[in-house]
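Can anyone check this?
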Amino acid sequence: MLELVTRAGCHLCDEAEVALRELGLEPVLRDVDADQELSALYDFRVPVVLLDGQVVAEGRVDPERLRRVLRA
């Protein structure tokens, strides 16, 4: 499962979502501020891209790097 941990008003989160969608992917969006566990893990790290529960990207997401990681 592909998830994007995000928060409202986060421009980096918006950019990460666009990058994933441009790769033809539809991530499950998870609001870091609505979940205590996510907040404890990722509060200052958003956006965070998780693939099967593992962090594959965070912060400023590089679309090319993300493409390579997700295709591996």
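Reply from J.R.: I decoded it. The first strand starts at residue 2 and ends at 6.
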